[in-house]
Amino acid sequence: MQNFDYQTPTRLIFGEGVVEQLPEVMGQFGKKILLTYGGGSIKKLGLYDKVKELLKDFEIYELSGIQPNPKYDPSVLDGVKICKENDVDVILAVGGGSVLDCSKAIATGAKYDGDPWDLITYKAFATDSVPIVDIITLAATGSEYDSGGVISRTETNDKIGYIDPHNFPLVSFLDPTYTFTVSKKQTAAGCADAMNHIMEQYFCEDSTLLNDGFMEAGLKSLMINAKKCLENPEDYTARAEMMLCCTYGCNGIYALGNSGSGWPCHAIEHALSAYYDITHGEGLAIITPRWMKHILSEKSVDRFVKYGVNVFGIDANQDKFDIASQAIEATYKFFESINIPMHLKDVGIDDSRIGEMAQHIAVNEGLENAWIPLLEDDLVKILTESL
Ligand code: NZQ
Ligand code: ZN
After folding, report:
1. Burial of 94 (0-12, 13-18, 19+ CB in 10 A)
2. What distance in Å separates the CA atoms of residue 45 and residue 179, rounded to the nearest whole number?
């Protein structure tokens, strides 16, 4: 077991109707609020009107139109400008992970004198930030409980994930009823994203019985509950459990004391989204089984056996490589069963930029230090297998 130093300052307020507490919570931070949101789902949901009504005594500025795979220019830059010009006290992010990630970059950028891109690329480190509160409306990223953010810069094909303790939201409202309207596509993609967050922590050198059990249960819960959500989008219990599994995803709690993995599938997917602006969870679902096949070896096989037996109930009395192959196949079949397109060509990606993307990943993501190292040639093979 590895040493760790763990702190999550985020207050989670979970359940139907919790958003009624918004005025009291926001009041702790001040009067001037920057309300951030995406392309309009919160208006269809009635949540926009609800928030405006609840916060009628506050001074509200708005940043709308934040896109999936949130963009540095214009969204982050516009948000920083609004905060600086109006001396905003607190940011309220209402939407999915993209809205929240964009708000995180705004929060630190607003308290920094230089180019906010410096903070995303670790050229400089934040010393202060505007407090962030969120109402998360999509179960997927876990951004509501972590210090990560992922920002894209289209002109340089960059999609950069970074962590900064200032990125932790101070309060996250989680009302599963707000996820009832999430489309089947985004529900499935959210499930794949959260499953991959667990896998990125499960497939490593050093784990514990406790963490393995926690993560195996998380994977099983996600698979069962995502199917229920797809069958009945208003199944409160299923939406609620799926939401909590997702919330735990990236803040480290699933794997305290584990050794790192290098998060290889995320590293690869970030390049796919950077070059082709695809849905994050779909990209992960496509890459994951191909990555698994590629790294299966004497070194990794026992982890795959444990995963296959405990998550998919595969008969343990077989050759270990047979069990591992069945586990990989079961992973693929599950994603297929929730209607995720399972080939890159299905999401508009052909072989024309594979070399370029592999090089970009090899140079920028440090996968030569992953649990099972991946060099440029490996990346070309995984991407080609995914076509
Ligand atoms: O833009 P609006 O109109 O709000 O529509 C969104 C968007 O089109 C819609 N949506 C959200 N809530 C909805 C809804 N539609 C109907 N009903 C609702 N209740 O869903 C679409 C996708 O939203 P988005 O926020 O992009 O999805 P997600 O939450 O999956 O976020 C993806 C982003 O998060 C990053 C990804 O890379 C990607 O950029 N990640 C962030 C992480 C983190 N901070 O820890 C970790 C993850 O690994 C991930 O990389
Ligand atoms: Zn992810």
Report:
1. buried
2. 9
Distance CA 104, CA 246 (A): 18
Cα separation, 25 vs 246, in Å, equals: 23
Q: 323 C-alpha vs ligand 1 centroid, how far in Å? A: 34
pLDDT above 90 for 139: yes
Structure tokens at 249: 């995803």
Two tokens, residue 34: 């920057």
Ligand 1 contacts CB of residue 283 (under 6 A): no
Residues 6+ apart with CB under 8 A from 275: 157, 349, 353, 356, 357, 360
Q: Is 142 in the pocket of ligand 1 (CB under 6 A)?
A: yes
Q: What is the pLDDT of residues 71-120, one digit of tens each?
A: 999 999 999 999 999 999 999 999 999 999 999 999 999 999 999 999 99
Q: How far apart (Å, rounded) are the C-alpha atoms in residues 33 and 54? A: 13
List, in order, residues 6 or more apart from 16 with CB less than 8 Å away. Answer: 175, 176, 177, 236
Q: Is 4 left (phi over 0), alpha (psi -120 to 50) or beta?
A: beta
- The pLDDT tens digits for 250-269 are 999 999 999 999 999 999 99
Is 252 close to ligand 1, i.e. is its CB under 6 Å away?
Answer: no
Backbone angles phi, psi at 150, to 5 degrees: -130, 120
Over the stretch 216-238, which tens digit does the pLDDT of each residue have? 999 999 999 999 999 999 999 99
Please work out whether the CB of residue 137 comes within 6 Å of at least one atom of ligand 1.
yes
Q: What is the pLDDT of residue 154?
A: 87
Contact partners, residue 372, CB within 8 Å, separation at least 6: 264, 295, 297, 299, 300
Whether 95 contacts 138, CB under 8 Å: yes
Q: Whose CA is nearest to atom 25 of ligand 1?
A: 96
What is this structure's pTM? 0.98
Atom of ligand 1 nearest to the CA of 152: 39
CA 365 – CA 261 distance, rounded (Å):
12
According to the model, what pLDDT value does residue 284 have?
98
Measure the CA–CA gap between 247 and 241, rounded to whole angstroms.
Answer: 10
* CB-count exposure of residue 183 (10 Å: 0-12, 13-18, 19+): exposed
HEC profile of 104-166: HHHHHHCCCCCCCHHHHCCCCCCCCCCCEEEEECCCCCCHHHCCEEEEEEHHHCEEEEEECHH
Q: Is 194 in the pocket of ligand 1 (CB under 6 A)?
A: no
